[in-house]
């Protein structure tokens, strides 16, 4: 076994290890958004649900394929490495698409939060208290959203709940969540694509080496 082959195998193994960790990061970010924003997602339209679900699905698939690539690199299986590289290319396309959708639509989603929260608040103020509890906030824009109505317990950290000790509005809190996790998911997608590109190149090189070695062994 030559030094070049050993180097390729180790680079492919290390890149897949990073790839698996990035996949877990995507999965974790998706779960974090889903758990933290459950109250908002339940009342919002489907456009607010796409990113966390897609992140969890892609992250899980990424981790499994990275494990597959590690096995292919260790065994030097031409079939496994080619299959692995094809799956990686497909995943690269999917993640570029996901990152593009996030970066293109993030501003419009963030700007649409006040309207979504106002509609939810006007439709069912009792249900809106789940959002206030999850984000420690009060009303869409603050305690003045309730006008002359008594503030609910979810609006304050201590009782009695008054405008003086009430939390700030929920719109800023939810917008901050979307901006933070949206950018994080998009950046992780780009990082994963860069790692995948390296893995694909070295995977194909190792697959070519394995195929040539099998041919020579038959002579």
TrEMBL record:
It is a multi-pass membrane protein. This is Tetraspanin. It comes from the Eukaryota. Pfam families: Tetraspanin (PF00335). Disulfide bonds join 137-170, 138-156. Keywords: Disulfide bond, Membrane, Transmembrane, Transmembrane helix. Belongs to the tetraspanin (TM4SF) family. Its main location: membrane. The chain crosses the membrane at residues 7-33, 53-74, 81-104, 181-207. InterPro entries: Tetraspanin/Peripherin (IPR018499), Tetraspanin_animals (IPR000301), Tetraspanin_CS (IPR018503), Tetraspanin_EC2_sf (IPR008952). It comes from Papilio xuthus. The gene is LOC106121716. GO terms for cellular component: plasma membrane. It is found in: Membrane.
């Amino acid at each position: 076994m030559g030094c070049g082959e050993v180097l390729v195998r180790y680079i492919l193994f290390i890149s897949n290890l990073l790839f698996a960790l990035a996949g877990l990061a995507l999965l974790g970010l998706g779960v974090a958004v889903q758990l933290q924003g459950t109250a908002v997602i339940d009342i919002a339209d489907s456009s607010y649900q796409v990113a966390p679900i897609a992140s969890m699905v892609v992250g899980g698939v990424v981790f499994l394929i990275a494990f597959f690539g590690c096995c292919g690199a260790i065994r030097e299986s031409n079939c496994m490495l080619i299959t692995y590289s094809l799956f990686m290319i497909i995943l690269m396309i999917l993640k570029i698409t996901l990152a593009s959708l996030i970066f293109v639509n993030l501003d419009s989603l963030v700007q649409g939060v006040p309207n979504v929260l106002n509609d939810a608040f006007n439709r069912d103020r009792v249900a809106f208290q789940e959002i206030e509890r999850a984000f420690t906030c009060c009303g869409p824009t603050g305690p003045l959203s309730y006008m002359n109505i008594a503030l609910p317990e979810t609006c304050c950290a201590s009782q009695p709940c008054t405008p003086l000790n009430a939390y700030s509005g929920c719109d800023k809190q939810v917008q901050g969540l979307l901006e933070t996790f949206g950018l994080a998911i998009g950046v992780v997608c780009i990082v994963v694509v860069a790692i995948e590109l390296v893995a694909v190149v070295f995977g194909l090189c190792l697959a070519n080496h394995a195929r040539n070695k099998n041919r020579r062994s038959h002579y």
